[in-house]
Write a structure and sequence with these properties.
Layout lengths: L8 H27 L3 H31 L6 H29 L16
Helix pairs in contact: 1-2, 2-3
């Protein structure tokens, strides 16, 4: 079991800042659910907050356990990979389902369709 005194002061400060920063970024993304008006803006804010916050927290975790165990601990990279791959995919699926629902109900507040630019 890891004890707090096992971590050097310089590492504890860096780990604390990374974890605190990641938590704040995630909290700001969660506030997007309250502050933003449309579903599309809300889902975008939470996705960015979760991904960026997760990155900072996992960096802090990697640093903490690498120092205390005396070897590189990189299994957090798998967590980051899975979250980084699944969060945007979930965003796309939710947004497409909402667009389909809004179009079938003929709601006026739909995102505009953007035409792809053609290369000349």
């Amino acid at each position: 079991m890891m004890q707090a005194p096992d971590l050097p002061t310089w590492a504890a400060i860096i780990v604390g800042l990374l974890v605190l920063g990641g938590a704040i970024i995630t909290l700001v993304g969660a506030f997007g659910l309250i502050r933003l008006k449309t579903f599309y803006a809300r889902v975008h804010a939470t996705t960015l907050g979760a991904t960026a916050g997760m990155a900072a927290i996992l960096l802090g975790s990697m640093l903490c356990f690498s120092i205390t165990q005396g070897r590189p601990v990189v299994h957090e990279i798998l967590i980051a990979l899975f979250v980084t791959l699944t969060t945007p995919v979930t965003l796309i699926l939710l947004a497409r389902a909402a667009i389909y629902r809004d179009r079938s109900e003929k709601l006026p507040q739909l995102p505009t369709r953007s035409e792809p630019e053609r290369a000349e």
